[in-house]
Design goal:
The protein has about 350 residues and is α+β, with helices and mostly antiparallel strands. It has 8 helices and 20 strands. The protein has helices at about 45-55, 100-105, 110-125, 140-155, 170-190, 200-205, 225-230, 235; strands at about 10-15, 20-30, 35-40, 60-65, 70, 85-90, 160-165, 190-195, 210-215, 215-220, 245-250, 255, 260, 270-275, 280-285, 300-310, 315-320, 330-335, 345-350, 355-360. Adenosine-5'-triphosphate (ATP) binds near residues 43 and 47. InterPro entries: AAA+_ATPase, ABC_SmlMolc_Importer, ABC_transporter-like_ATP-bd, ABC_transporter-like_CS, ABC_transpr_FbpC, Mo/tungstate-bd_C_term_dom, P-loop_NTPase, Transp-assoc_OB_typ2.
């Protein structure tokens, strides 16, 4: 039988500071063993949401449940230490005067031998057994982070809350520690709510992403769905650079220099924005002033002149000034191709990879 009760559920959580509502009707649930990322720009209310779940901040309205039981609502309040929630924050430092083993055992009670067994088990999981008797100042940042993970997991929390836990680590190390952390969390079956402002981190870690803006959840779903079926321009732009082409709708279609785009359900005369990621703009050569023939998949190509081309390693980012209106469009192309400024090329837009949104 699948487990149907969410490990963590929050319903209509609200919180204001000085009359400004910074978290508005936030609802989500996390199943055991699932990682949900609260993703959004700085100040959108992610940490406040996490703090309310941890119990270090109280909500104005809404409820927080664990395994179907109320932890906090307008009548009840379970104190933080009784919530069985683990915390891992970027600046959640280890205790400097305690050894690695003592740090990990800090939240444990029960017989010493049992505590020691749990400490050894977790340190082995995070590959830190050889540092068991060392002190935090002997460890690198990544090693400290692994011990912090072991410490947070030691009392077997039902839910783990993580606020930008990897942002103090350099890029290469961060990927490694993220993957390892994820493996350990999955093994333990903990439900994880992770706050980040980095889309790459959310895509890498999350089973579900809750994209936040201005205190509200704008869109929630599997990373694949959020990336490929974004609700609006903000949701597209949060994950990558975007190009925007404007058009006006007539008969559920909008006419542009790149051909027609479908705009189903948009009334005649309304303005739409066609949003396209740089990697989904196709490029073709100029053949004496002519480009490739139109196709249903790519529409009509339009000509632009290379303004700048930057080599980025795996790909090059090429900036074009379009002949038809002087606007700038950006395309990424495989790094084998680095066109010179001044070169005319033809750009086309993949119909299955662009998004058409009504303006306003
Ligand atoms: N204790 C507080 N008193 C007053 N305002 C607060 C308090 N805590 C948070 N805020 C405000 O609430 C808003 C949301 O803050 P929050 O820290 O939740 O955002 P965030 O999305 O986590 O951002 P960041 O990634 O920068 O931490 C911000 O405008 C912040 O200044």
């Amino acid at each position: 039988m699948p487990e149907l009760t969410p490990r963590l559920e929050i319903r209509d959580l609200c919180r204001s500071f000085a009359g400004v509502e910074v978290v508005r009707n936030v609802s989500l649930s996390v199943m055991p063993g699932q990682v949900t990322c609260l993703l959004g720009p700085s100040g959108c209310g992610k940490s406040t949401t996490l703090r309310m779940i941890a119990g270090v901040e109280t909500q104005d309205r809404g409820s927080i449940l664990m395994d179907g039981k109320v932890l906090a609502d307008d009548r009840q309040f379970t104190p933080p230490e009784a919530r069985r929630i683990g915390l891992m924050f970027q600046d959640f430092a280890l205790f400097p005067h305690l050894s690695v083993a003592e740090n990990v055992a800090f939240g444990l009670d029960g017989p010493k031998a049992q505590q020691r067994a749990r400490v050894e088990e977790l340190l082995a999981r995070v590959e830190m057994s050889r540092h068991i008797d060392n002190y935090p100042h002997h460890l690198s940042g990544g090693e400290q982070q692994r011990v912090a993970l072991a410490r947070a997991l030691a009392p077997r929390p039902r839910v783990m809350l993580m606020d930008e836990p990897f942002s103090g680590l350099d890029n290469r190390l961060r990927d490694e520690i993220r993957d390892q952390t994820l493996d350990v969390l999955k093994d333990e079956g903990t439900a994880v709510l992770l706050v980040t402002h980095e889309p790459d981190e959310a895509m890498r870690m999350a089973d579900e992403i809750a994209l936040m803006r201005g205190g509200e959840i704008l869109q929630q779903g599997a990373p694949y769905n959020i990336y490929n079926a974004p609700r609006d321009k903000f949701a597209v732009a949060f994950f990558s650079d975007i190009n925007v082409i404007r058009g006006r709708v007539q008969g559920a279609l909008t006419e542009t220099p790149f051909g027609q785009f479908l705009a189903p359900g948009v009334p005649d005369g309304a303005e739409v924005e066609i949003v396209i990621r740089p990697q989904h703009i196709g490029i073709d050569f100029d053949r004496e002033g002519r480009g490739p023939l139109p196709t249903p998949q790519q529409g009509t190509p339009a000509r632009g002149v290379v303004q700048r081309a930057r080599f980025m390693g795996n790909e090059s980012l090429v900036e074009f000034r379009m002949d038809h209106d002087g606007s700038i469009l950006r395309a990424t192309v495989p790094n084998v191709f680095l066109p010179r400024p001044g070169k005319p090329l033809w750009l086309s837009i993949r119909r299955d990879r662009c998004f058409v949104f009504p303006v306003g």
